[in-house]
Amino acid sequence: MARNISPSLLAANFGELEADIRMINNSRAQWLHCDVMDGVFVPNISFGQPVISMISKISEKPLDVHLMIIEPEKHIDSFIEAGAKSITVHYEACRHLHRTIYQIKDKGILAGVTLNPHSPVHLLEEIITDVDLVLIMSVNPGFGGQKFIESSLNKISKLKELIERKNAKAEIQVDGGVTLENAPLLFRAGANNLVAGTTVFRSPDPVKTIDELLNA
Ligand code: DX5
Ligand code: ZN
């Protein structure tokens, strides 16, 4: 599956958001990752639909919206109206995950499920053929700039096995503590889609860093 880098805007300069989005437009990143936090599911609040809507007017990259909110089904339609091209919801936040995945897919965009570090891969056994994307959290969600949890590598391998065994088509995305050092290990374990916040936006040359991640 093609490699995909999705820079996380959470690490951008919010005072110069437009400049940072245009910089990503001029890079080889395929997606732009937007972290939505509600202060309930995760201990932090980020931004919501009005900001996503402005981002979508500037971004030439599809918006990859990671919902870290409870009851995501209440807000999916408005995030799609705001410009989301893929939405991932947390396994831990969905009472009726299958229904929520089809609520997203029926609107014609990509649907993904996210696993927190404590949630095992086998929980996805009965949903893996329905999703376009699985997001493995390699930190506890809520903040950028945290340290990569090493056991995530094993989870990626297990997920790859599950996808192959079920003849599923899901992409494997990894989010949290992704660096130039661990990117080759993540690709080798089976991930094809890396989210990177700090590594991209705190780099002296983010466009070059995106190239380096793609070639890692
Ligand atoms: C964490 C977010 C991540 C975060 C990643 O809850 O989901 O997308 O922005 O940031 P880094 O790459 O700095 O760990
Ligand atoms: Zn994220």
How would you describe what is shown here?
There is one protein chain. The chain has 216 residues and is an alpha/beta fold. The chain has one domain (4-214): Aldolase class I (TIM Barrel). Helices cover 32% and strands 20% of the residues. It has eight helices and eight strands; from the N terminus they run βαβαβαβαββαβαβαα. Strands 1-8-7-6-5-4-3-2 form an eight-stranded parallel β-sheet. α2 (49-58) runs parallel beside α3 (76-82). It is globular. The two termini are 15 Å apart. The mean pLDDT is 98. Residues 8, 10-11, 33, 35, 66, 139, 141-146, 175-178, 195-199 line the site of D-xylitol-5-phosphate.
Helices and strands in order, then pairings?
Blueprint (H helix, E strand, L loop, with lengths): L3 E4 L9 H9 L6 E6 L11 H10 L4 E6 L7 H7 L1 E7 L6 H9 L4 E6 L17 E5 L14 H14 L5 E5 L7 H7 L3 E4 L1 H4 L4 H9 L2
Parallel strand pairs: 1-8, 2-3, 3-4, 4-5, 5-6, 6-7, 7-8
Bound molecules: D-xylitol-5-phosphate and zinc ion (ZN).
The site of zinc ion has 6 residues, from strand 2.
CATH architecture: Alpha-Beta Barrel
The name of the CATH superfamily reads: Aldolase class I
What is the count of DSSP helices, taking H or I runs of 4+ residues? 8
Bound small molecules, by name, code or SMILES, are: D-xylitol-5-phosphate, zinc ion
Q: What overall geometry do the principal axes of the alpha carbons give?
A: globular
Low-confidence stretches: none
Rg computed from alpha carbons, rounded to a whole number of angstroms: 16 Å
What is the SS-derived class?
alpha/beta
Share in helix: 25-40%
The end-to-end distance, rounded to whole angstroms, is 15 Å
Q: Please, how many domains? A: 1
CATH topology descriptor: TIM Barrel
Strands of the largest sheet, in order across it? 1-8-7-6-5-4-3-2
